[in-house]
Write a structure and sequence with these properties.
191 residues; alpha/beta; Conserved hypothetical protein from pyrococcus furiosus pfu- 392566-001, ParB domain; 2 domains; four-stranded mixed sheet; 8 helices; 10% strand
């Protein structure tokens, strides 16, 4: 499977690995069946996953060799250049690096194991789980939030004290500065 993004939050991947290890052993098939990975079939019949990159990497690291995919589109008849343009136009690509900078399509990793850590993506996931914003169907929502935090929380703070960075990020997520982001939940009612 080919990734359609450059980065993941490795803290998020570790959380998914823990959830996998903590599930009942007889529930593996049910878990994987309930977490199908959406993909587009691209040139040469290669599946390009468009979501659940964290889960795919976690399963790979846990030694799971097969997962179920849900095919969203079959575009294997397109030449690679047209395929990439189509994927980009449908917001099925996120070619941004760990600094939030857009890269060339050729910079996308060729394999899930080559995804790069973006600690701000992990922060965005933790903020959502802590109630800072709501889950949204908008593609790559967590990366939009990651960029929002990237502009407001110094990387040193994030690297040295994730908990403190999270405490700082939660009120930022509820601030008016974040109102343009998908899933914004508004000011905390206790404010």
């Amino acid at each position: 499977m080919r990734p359609t993004q450059i980065t993941v939050g490795l803290r998020e991947v570790e959380t998914k690995r823990r959830q996998w290890r903590d599930r009942p052993r007889d529930a593996a098939g049910r878990f994987l069946g309930g977490h199908m990975i959406p993909a587009v079939i691209g040139p040469k019949g290669q599946p390009w996953i468009v979501d659940h990159h964290h889960l795919a990497l976690a399963m790979l690291q846990e030694g799971v060799e097969e997962v179920m995919i849900s095919v969203l589109a079959r575009l294997d008849d397109l030449p690679k250049k047209r395929f990439m343009a189509f994927m980009d136009a449908h917001n099925w690509l996120h070619p941004y690096d760990e600094d939030g900078k857009r890269r060339e399509f050729s910079d996308l990793p060729r394999h899930i194991r080559d995804l790069v850590d973006d600690p701000y993506r992990s922060l965005a996931g933790e903020v959502r789980r802590a109630g800072g914003y709501a889950k949204s169907p908008t593609p790559y929502t967590e990366f939009l939030w990651a960029d929002f935090f990237r502009d407001r929380i110094k990387s040193g703070k994030l690297e040295n004290d994730f908990g403190d960075a999270l405490s700082h990020a939660l009120p930022l997520a509820r601030s008016q500065d974040a109102r343009h982001l998908p899933g914004w939940a508004g000011p905390d009612s206790t404010d």
